[in-house]
Model the fold of this input.
Amino acid sequence: MRSVGQKAELLRVIAHPARLRILEELTKGVKCVSDFEEFLEISQPNISQHLSLLRSHGIIDYYMDGRLRCYFLIDPVIPDILELLGKDYPEALPAPACCPVTKRGKYPGERRR
Done:
């Protein structure tokens, strides 16, 4: 089981648009760097940096096929996280009627920011 710190670190590492797109592609199967170049609008060295970070945190790994590095997912929680992030929620959770501790107070209906 992951500690709270490990969970936070995992979320920090995957919380980048390019890394999320990489992970989404890897849920479909094995990919090499040239595959990522086709849909990411960033340089090959930048893609390699993202892949290296994901690999160093145990999220992905690769094998060599000739001169190609073929990347694949190894952390089983990633597909679940991506599926959850892809869900469409039509509305926010309902507000509480009152404070659950004091049983007083009333939610004014507008969120304070």
Remarks:
- The chain has one domain: 4-86.
